[in-house]
Amino acid sequence: MEHLLIDIGTVVVAATALGLVAHWLRQPVILAFLVAGALLGPGIGFGWVQDRGSIEVIGSIGLVLLLFVIGLELDLRQVLASGRQLLVTGLGQFPLCAGLGLLVFPLMGFGLATGRLEALYLGIACALSSTAIVVKALADKAELDTVAGRLTVGVLVLQDVFAILVLGFQPNFSDPKPWPLAKALLSTVVLLAVGWTVARYLLGRVFASVSRSTELVVAVSIAWCALMAGIAHHLGLSKEMGALVAGLAIAAFPYRLHVTAKTLPLRDFFLTLFFVSLGMGIPAPAWGMVAPVAGVVAVAVLSRFLTVWPLVVWSGGGHRAAVITSINLAQISEFGLVIAALGVQFGHIGGHITGILTYAMAITAVLSSYGMRWNDRIFAWGERLWRRGGEVSGLHAAISHGPGAGAHPVAILGFHRIGRAIADGLAPHLRQHLLVIDFHLETLERLRGEGIAGHFGDIGSLDTLHHAHVEHARVIVSSVPDLLLKGTDNLTLARTCRALAPKAYLIATADTPEARARLEAEGVDLVVMPWELAGERMAQAVAKALGAEPPQR
Question: 118, 415, 481, 516: least surrounded by Cβ within 10 Å?
Fold first, then answer.
């Protein structure tokens, strides 16, 4: 026991140190955990954690509780309330990507016969994207509420549903006879029924009675997870499946948010244990692994563009939403590694497959982090290529080149809250003088219904501003704060607009007094600090409530 505690302490210290380095370098933290495990383990590292039993215990604990937290955060009601685009894309992406893997991986030498299921496991792993990586990146970019962001999160939810089905049938992959599959399906139904019934009629009362005690909330949650894992094991299912159902049962009820809030501190800790344990199992790199890893990475990335892109467009989404969603999902999931690790335990695949997938996941995690950071630039670059080839979507053409999309006296760059306030503050007959430049197609389509012209494009691109005829505008407004701008800032926009329209009246936003000084020095006519204006209005309201006049500035 003492040796196990020392090993866990070593793992946590190493993972924290490398996690800080990854954070400072803006790299995925999961990659740091994998590297920490590789450095600590006996394969290619220093061998500071030698006991395989310790490694297995660390991985098992982390895996069970990881899936429990994933279940807590998975709201199946979002799927039922989703529209056609999400249902078509989400239901089609996983089977198409997995099927593509089943076609390609046997050509690369991976087996598909009974007792050698490498192609099946690789196909499944390449069809699943990383919820942890994607959701964090979208939240950091404030893109969760965009069309592409909602599509991405919805597809991730449906991927988790497919993963649940895979976990239920996985023990019978090597012997896919009707009765074992029917038994697995029946056991899964029983497990779900038990979880829902207990959560509905008993667990809710338990949580209500201990809601004021953080320690008891966490203890009851972990006990519930352990109980469902044990029931799943007795039904012939995996313990991980039981943990996932335990989380799903809680997620379906109102106290889900309370339990999630209390158990979230445990999530990162057990994520650390699980991914470090996977890193410990990474085999020493060899030249023979280069081609398989490169092949898996290529299939994982290209399969997204070959499936997600056409599905989104076919279901009525624009090309931008299709491309951005494909980029967002272009990585291998931690769930894929979970399924592969279980496949090794079941004897379906060898440990070298997990090693290949671990390397591939690390590579796609890095590529994806940069891809999501620059997804707008990638689409703008691709858009220029399509435009040269004459391929512009109908919605894009209607918005960017439709009636009234030429020269306008007022150009608003980016339609954030300030832009919305400007439009709402103008009389209806004055709105026809506005031209909004933004890259959110749904926003532009809504504005078009209000009689406001829109031009699709990146406001940081000189070509976009030129094609929108900004040089003819009498007033140019940069309405998005620097904090939310990607790849540019208000100072750069002011210089570009001044070069395009030397006589225009420029209005820009600033986040700090220093930014205001730089913009004024650049010749911006009016610099607005939103928080300062809000403070003035609030000060007036407070002074009025106190029966006094606010101080004059």
Answer: 516
